[in-house]
Specification:
The chain is α+β, with helices and mostly antiparallel strands. The chain has 2 domains: 117 residues, Alpha-Beta Plaits (2-Layer Sandwich), CATH 3.30.70; 135 residues, no CATH class. The protein has 9 helices and 9 strands. Strands 1, 2, 3, 4 and 5 form a 5-stranded antiparallel beta sheet that branches. It has a 4-stranded antiparallel beta sheet with strand order 7-8-6-9. A hairpin with a 2-residue loop joins strand 2 and strand 3. The longest helix has 36 residues. The protein is globular. The protein starts with a strand and ends in a 16-residue tail after the last strand. One of its GO terms (cellular component) is gas vesicle. This is Gas vesicle protein. Belongs to the gas vesicle GvpF/GvpL family. It is found in: Gas vesicle.
Length: 269
């Protein structure tokens, strides 16, 4: 069975060896390939699963994709504890070691520039969610053509009272959103002032993320490792008097949002 090279990241030579038990995609151990003073961290993976056609089919399988992404991230996390890795795209595969070396040489200038800019820095993610009320859920259901909940008992509420209550709920919903969006803007401005760089990403869909509530801020912040504790404490101190607003902090991650890497020749196999 032919083995392909699955590349996770590029980094400088490591000051410590990779953990002997560190496994990545397809349960294969991670290893290092050096070229011109750059290290590609990779695993040997079976061609029957990672050649172009089967890989494309696997990427449509949510369970396979979830397991592969988790294994990929496991290696990136281990590297982040040792160095400043430049993560490559999920599914970056080459035919052999020679193909990996060609990629390293072709992109050497780009990799070195990114490493110099990101050395000693990590990425922190901050999200702000607004918890949705039952009324909001009912309204979303109507917008998607779902059947409304059970009607109120006959005579319980007049038409005028119903409209008044609905207008009141709408105003309360709008006020909650305005407070949440204002809070998210202030938080982003405050955290951006403490970070070296920041990125605003599109809000995440609750269907895909599995998180409760609606995402109103999805941001990444580039922070020196030496100031990460201070950054985390700043997020922890944030308090908001808007009911139903939740702040979520994740990290430290490799600086995915700040590498500035182009797509290059990934997937050359």
């Amino acid at each position: 069975m032919t083995a392909l090279r699955y590349v996770y990241a590029v980094c400088r030579p490591l000051g410590a060896p990779l953990q002997a038990q560190l496994t990545g995609v397809a349960g294969a151990p991670a290893r290092q390939l050096e070229h011109h003073g750059l290290i590609a961290v990779l695993s040997l993976v079976p061609e029957e699963d990672f050649a172009e056609a089967p890989l494309k089919a696997h990427l449509e399988d949510l369970d396979w994709l979830t397991d592969t992404a988790r294994a990929h991230q496991n290696v990136i996390d281990a590297l982040t504890g040792l160095t400043t890795p430049l993560p490559l795209r999920l599914g970056t595969v080459f035919r052999d070691d020679s193909g990996v070396r060609v990629m390293l040489e072709a992109r050497e200038k780009e990799f070195r520039h990114a490493m110099e800019r990101l050395e000693g820095r990590v990425e922190w993610g901050v999200k702000v969610y607004v918890e949705e009320s039952e009324a909001d859920e009912d309204e979303k259901g109507r917008e998607h053509g779902e059947k409304a909940g059970p009607a109120a008992p006959a005579g319980a509420v007049s038409g005028r009272d119903y409209l008044r209550q609905r207008r009141s709920r709408t105003r309360a919903h709008e006020e909650t959103w305005q407070r949440a969006e204002g809070f998210a803007r202030r938080l982003h401005d405050m955290l951006s002032a403490q970070a070296e760089d920041s990125r605003l990403h599109a809000p995440q869909s609750a269907t895909l993320s599995g998180a409760s509530g609606r995402n109103v801020l999805n941001a990444a912040y580039l922070v020196p490792r030496s100031r990460s504790e201070e950054f985390v404490e700043l997020v922890d101190r944030v308090e908001d008097d808007s009911p139903g607003v939740r702040v979520e902090l994740t990290g430290p991650w490799a600086a995915y949002s700040f590498t500035g890497l182009t797509e290059g020749t990934e997937g050359a196999a």
